[in-house]
Amino acid sequence: MVPLLIGMGCTAPKAEDAVVRVPLEVGATVLGVTRGEPDRPVPGTSNEAPTVAVDTSGGVWVAWTARWEDDEVIWLQDSQGLTREIAVAKLASNPRIAAGPDGSVWLTWVMGDEGRHVYLQRVDLRDTERQRISHDPWNAHPALVVGEDGPHLVWETASRTIVYFHEHTIGLGGLDVLRRRPDIALLPDGPIVAWDELQWTRGRVDPDYDLVVWRPGEKNEPQVLRRPGIQAAPDLLAQPDGSLLIACHDSESTGGIVKWLRLFRWDAGEWSSWEDPQASLEHTGENQGAEFPSIARTRDGGLVAVTRGAHGHQVHLLSASGASAPLDLTRSVWGARGWRQDVIVAGDTAYIARRARKENLVEVLKLPAVSGLPPFSPVEDLVDEGAPLPSKVPGVVFGDVHMHSALSDGTGPPDEILARAWARGLDFAVLTDHDTIVGSQLSPSDHDEIRVVTDWFDHLAGFTTLHGYEWTTPPTWREGSGHRNVYFSGADPTLHSAALGAPDTAALNAALAEEQAFTAPHHSSWTGTDWANFDPSIQRQFEIVSVHGLSEMPGDQVIGARWHEGGSYASDGLAAGLVFGFLGGSDGHGLRWHHGIGRVEDPWATGLTGARCSDPCGRGALWAEMYARRTWATSGARIVAELRIGEVGPGEETVADGEVSLTWTGTATLVRDGAVLGEFADGHVDRAPKGAHSYYIRIERDGHYAWTSPIFVEVR
Ligand SMILES: [Zn+2]
Ligand SMILES: [Zn+2]
Fold first, then answer.
1. CB-based contacts of 145: which residues, under 8 Å, 6+ apart?
2. Looking at the CA of 438, which ligand is closest?
3. Which residues sit opposite 429 in a β-bridge?
4. For 83, 164, 613, 651, which has the most beta carbons within 10 A of its beta carbon?
5. How far away, in angstroms, is 547 Cα from ligand 2 center?
6. Buried (b) or exposed (e) across 400-424, using 16+ Cβ within 10 A?
7. Which pTM was predicted?
8. Check: CATH 2.130.10.10 for 2-378?
9. Confidence of residue 173 (pLDDT cuts 50, 70, 90)
10. Which ligand lies nearest to the CA atom of residue 498 in the structure?
């Protein structure tokens, strides 16, 4: 054990009255870096999702998943500190461990070479067989509790069914809702399950996720608590009085975008809730929010909760007098966490399992005496009908092609990110999590989850998704190639990772030459871009605007940029005669003001792509428009931008004899070969020198901007 003293994190200076000051000492036991079989050390950079249990003798058990070459491995560290491999498959993830009152310890996980099934194994005895218990071909997020009568499980399937298992399975499905992240607890009168489900409310800043409880049984109806905003990722705790505590992350009490820990109590059908006054404070720094809570009861009847901030984990102590200021478990470092954490209490000690920047940790906290629960208030259904969506221009679609979830360095689960785009009335969206970021890699199971979720949302009427990811290398000023998003036309995307075989632009281009895919670099004014390896058949696009600002041209930036990396603006590529179109994407990570550098508070309102694509604009048609560069970018508003040279439009190539006659509507700034020609109304006739040229326009509407893709003209 490496004792590690961490000072009190105080992120909530304005809620003094609600804050309990308690000293906590944190000691960290590092798992997963040097442990494992001696000839097969566990790779430290891809260990994920640790889960912890304490058996009736006080022994601590930890399980986690890790990548091993092309496979994933479920590892177990037993109460003697010995590590053993439980299972290996192409996909092996979502481990959960639990101890029973009879001294048994059980482990569940999902795995498969094709699809992924739920497995269950007793692990405190050697030589026990694992048992496959699922029937659907794709399953996720099993949760486990062990009673006097053995293990009870719950999980979700790709057919959006919640499945309960104890000796046999009972499924609850068939409704037109997205049900995810179930958890299970044992009340005195039997098991109880809760999950979150997405309601199809639109015209909202945040998607509408609600909590549902269900007593497993063929005839039992689920009970939904309708509230505005997001209540998701429930963690359950049965109370001695027979009620159920549900911790979740919530955006109703924060005012949106950022989520915070919230508690609900379900008591024989009656709901009440506790909102942390710290939830509504303004969040501006890097480590915003408190998501994916795990809770446990302290010896004195208080609660300890562990949550995931955007860039680190934190501990909350809850008692009758309210909530402590969150204790940061690490100094906030961008990307320094996995998305799941686990806490369990034995005696006066809390064991916290979580992924840190490069390893899994089990941290050991001596808990001060905190007793009682914070004050709950009755809460009733409040159905938010949403607002009318912005009126549509027939044949025009808008979407966000650049967004991140908690599976890389963003916040919220992947479905929340696409659900938000849908709730805001966008016509299409692409979730583009990083393949690798600050030492963390998108695991095969993460990639698989994004694939499945992306396909779910593509099936919604009037909404289209593409498969994509963000290929991520260091900035060019650190010998990297910068960042670029990859967009696939098909349903089976391959993750050509910068960490594993596509380390530079040339390798990525070679890999993508075998696919129906194209790339677009972004925030290149900050991290640079690799023009030297420009391949016009692969790099079809350039993301000109996002939360990071504009990468249009140095010296004439109509909105700010994060940095000024000379030679990496759109103007530099166009001046060199390169051919590409323009996309806009938010690059949202779920942080208000994008941790202080954003030009607006809402990180998801900082970039859009527009295209002409008739209804229904399916995946193939949308991808083809983007591939053909027939797009325009906006700074976040739904501005329709159009430019013509005769019959030829943005992204296309044409020829002209001496004069180039451009037409558009209204006042616009005309840019030739990356340099401003001037501001003109309703068009312009340009006498360009012989040779290859590009023309695009930039228009302004109420403080927002749009950029058409260039038209490429050979002047004879
Ligand atoms: Zn990036
Ligand atoms: Zn990004």
1. 98, 151, 152, 184, 185, 186, 191
2. 1
3. 400, 465
4. 651
5. 9
6. bbbbbbbbbbbbbbbbbbbbbbbbb
7. 0.94
8. yes
9. confident
10. 1
